[in-house]
Batch of 4 targets.
Target 1
Amino acid sequence: MEHVVLFFKTIVLRPYVFIFLAAFLFSAIKLIGWPRTWRFWLISWATAFICEFSSTRTGIPFGWYFYNGSTIGQELYFFDVPFMDSISFSFLLFAAYCVALGLLLPFNATLRNDGSTHKPLRFEVAARTSWSVYGLTVFLFAFIDMVIDPVALRGDRWFLGKIYYYPDPGWHFGVPFANYVGWAVVGLISLALYFPLDRRLIPITPPPVITQRLLLGIGLYYGVLVFNLGMTFWIGETFMGISGLLMHLPVLIILTTRLSTLR
């Protein structure tokens, strides 16, 4: 009963996390269906939790960092890892996956009766589980954390709270490079487990316009990005915010340009 109470306290304390989680579940079910969605969530959450549990005790794979327990009694923890933190990896990995699909999925160009060109994305399993999608998803997954972690580290200046710290602050606004390597490791392991399952499950019958459903996951990626950039500027970290904005702007331009041609 205590864990149930703490779970509801977590929702009250971290409503933005559960809004993003709900957006993930909705967009994932629309795109890949429930059988794949729950497997994706479970694999990515378990991988992230194990890696966080390991890193707070051995420094592998994120490097050394520690949760200070300042919100114990206010939100749910598993051992010393806040529940909301490990579940965040799931929706961020899926969002990064959708952006990678938007950038890399092939399309077929067909001519409509009115003379316009129709370019539907091909969503077959070979395309969505390719090595290029695998690598780009992992990159985009770690890439968005280069905006998230610096502002999260300053959580005492906004409503996140000061919940963790690095004993040896790093070069990127106090975040060690090992942290981003750890994010890449979580992505690599999670997709290495999920992609073979995707290939073995009942094939997906894609909707006529897959792009519209893909945009839900892409919107989640940029929704999280805007939220964290907003917090960065709100606490007065202007240089850090501009840095994060300029890092992600080229990807957004390339993605928007490509998707605008798919009609």
Target 2
Amino acid sequence: MVKHVILWTLKDEFKNSDEIKSGIKSGLEGLKGQIPGLIDIKVNICPLASSNCDVMLDSCFEDEASLKGYSVHPAHVEVANTKVRPFTASRTCMDYEA
């Protein structure tokens, strides 16, 4: 099993936008059941004040090949290009075997 965790910081003008955060959450979580090898996907949009990021993706894949397939899957690319990338200033990623 492979875990794929991403932390995003939103662009300043979107930091207080619940609509943008909700769109990221619904878009990414809506991928469950659409992408082969994607076991689970959750997005947290309610960080505590002590956090230094705005949105977290926590996802799980059958294996590394499934994660690679997810990255180029048309449904994921669509969500990334329309709901995530236009609104984020930075991205940090960690993938690991669980």
Target 3
Amino acid sequence: MSIENILVVDDEPLIRELLEEILKKEGYSVNTVKNGLSALKKIKEHHFDLIITDVRMPDMDGITLLKKIRESSFSIPVIVITAYGSIENAVEVMKKGADDYITKPITPAQLKLTVQKISKQRNLLQENRYLRREIEQKYGYKELIGKSQAMREVYKMIDRAALSKSTVLISGETGTGKELVARAIHHRSSRRDKPFISVNCAALPKDLLESELFGHEKGSFTGAISKREGRFELADKGTLLLDEISATIPAFQAKLLRVLQEEEFERVGGNKTIKVDVRIIATTNKNLKKMVEKGEFREDLYYRLNVIPIHLPPLRKRKEDIPLLAQFFLKKYNHKNGGEVKEISKECFKIMEECLWPGNVRELENVIERAVVMNKEKTILPQNFALDISCSNERINLPENITIKEMEKKLIKETLQKMKGNRTKTAKTLGVSIRTIRNKIKEYQLW
């Protein structure tokens, strides 16, 4: 909400007239009063977007007025006028809660710039509040956004899971937002004020994962120069997220199963049994049930983890959520980068809806961020929209009746060829992690 109505408070008639004249020329509606008492009365009777007050005034000075405003329910920005060169006054008014200050003698340029600064801050605050409220109340939780039927089902499962202590298994392709779901469950649960600890099982060397989660005693292995608490201890009374649980080895899975069953463990190299109260949430981008059938994942652990299953659909299966996500990312990266891109053209939305989005929401976010950073216009147009080959059926010439797996293999192969075998560039182009690209190259025997 822009600043429209301003209250000027000063005991000198000439100063009041000067400020009123300058501000009215800028299009603001201005009221003036001669002291703090009159200002408080005026504030109770009328709505003001900004107050500009002198410090030294009879009856009630500007510092007292500022204090009264901050003690009340009025959340009005306040600019304080201080004597020229009085650093002590400036520091004091900022400590008392002033939003900014200007020094005498006041110049039109100084006044206009200060008011514009407050106006911009106010707009950003209002936009952030509105956006946060809109997302959390209407469509989801923070950056987990969507109004499609598929996402509505996910929200229902989040609410149900949050009421219990049972383990949750979140499945879905890379980039669908599995960690966001885990965080939403934690923050809506009775454990919200306790730790939320996340461990990426695929990113840690297999021989260090056990030490990372259970901790170790001093001297238990080479390099263990001191005792260390593991993630389970750190997450006590809270939630532990085991991201990409499918990447763990059978030996670790057996120890994890014991913790889930007994709620206790020993540190590596230790013999003291440690009791914990931890809510476990695991994620996977692979089909654990098929891994169990192939003997690649423990069946008993799978059933322990899969008490409350939540599946996140890929973006290509909930395309009605694309406009919401795109608008959210547009505002997010405008704020982050100080951009002024106001909208995305209808042509761009049409292109986005035709995309396959193998990198899912993460890929969409990357595309919007790039468009905001690179675009100098107010509107993102197709020519500004740097879509990669991953987004167009036509560009990669997909045959009819192709399966998702065949489509993914063809997409990665053609992108690798375009990037001359550079895996880092291929991952960046497709909006996925380098680890995902390495795994897919191995799976499809590419390059």
Target 4
Amino acid sequence: MKEMMKAIVSMEHGGIDKLCFEEMPVPKISADEVLVEVKAAALNHLDLWVRGGLPGFKLQMPHIFGSDAAGVVAAVSDVVE
């Protein structure tokens, strides 16, 4: 499995100028998760709202965008059927 992936990320809230195309480590999955190797992704209205900041919602940074995605399951944890 790959160790690095490409992602659109933001280190802080703001406009489109805060988005960066970066190499990031592939996430490690928890006991109740699956890992999807994304083949296609899009930014949608939710991503735009999150990018600007939502009152009362603290976002962990860096944030990886792309809430619309399609791909293949790359890994499954032990408790997922």
